[in-house]
């Protein structure tokens, strides 16, 4: 039986293995929104708890890992390395821009935490999807 057009399965993928760019855009947009809010100083009162759990490196890791997992799952886990590379470029630009913003500071450690989150999440999603028949097509 052929799936209905536009019907969805779990995990951000449409039935029949179609890509779901909306989920990917929402994930990237969420990270951009959080970055802009942090640059404007809006998030400072809400992020004090991060210092208790390891500082902003935990935030960078978790935020970029969540974005990477969503993008990789939505756009095609079999191409996880390509998505991780694109998101790594995004993280590099995001961290580089922070060097020029008055309320932000750019650091190699923040970039490393973000990159670790990106590659770990993309790898887990990509390699995990290899066990599913719909993703065995390379």
N- to C-terminal distance: 24 Å
What are the low-pLDDT stretches, counting only 5+ consecutive residues below 50?
6-10
Based on CA inertia axes, which overall geometry fits?
Answer: elongated
How are helices and strands ordered from N to C? HHHH
- What is the strand content? under 5%
Q: Compute the average pLDDT.
A: 83
Sheet/helix structural class: mainly alpha
Question: Radius of gyration in whole Å, from Cα?
Answer: 17 Å
Helical proportion, percent range: 55-70%
How is the biggest beta sheet arranged? none
Helical segment count? 4
Number of strands: 0
Notes on the protein architecture:
With 138 residues, the chain is an all-alpha fold. It has a domain at 56-138. The protein is built from 4 helices and no strands. Helix 1 packs antiparallel against helix 2. Residues 6-10 have low confidence and may be disordered.
């Amino acid at each position: 039986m052929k799936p209905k057009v536009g019907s969805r399965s779990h995990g951000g993928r449409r039935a029949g293995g179609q890509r779901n760019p909306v989920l990917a855009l929402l994930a990237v947009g969420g990270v951009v929104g959080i970055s802009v809010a942090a640059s404007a100083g809006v998030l400072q009162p809400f992020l004090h708890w991060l210092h208790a759990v390891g500082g902003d490196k935990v935030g960078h890791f978790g935020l970029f890992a969540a974005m990477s997992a969503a993008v990789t799952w939505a756009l095609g886990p079999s191409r996880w390395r390509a998505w991780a590379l694109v998101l790594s470029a995004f993280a590099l630009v995001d961290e580089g821009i922070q060097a020029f913003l008055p309320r932000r500071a750019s650091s190699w450690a923040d970039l490393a935490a973000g990159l670790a989150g990106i590659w770990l999440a993309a790898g887990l999603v990509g390699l995990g999807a290899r066990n599913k028949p719909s993703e065995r097509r390379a």
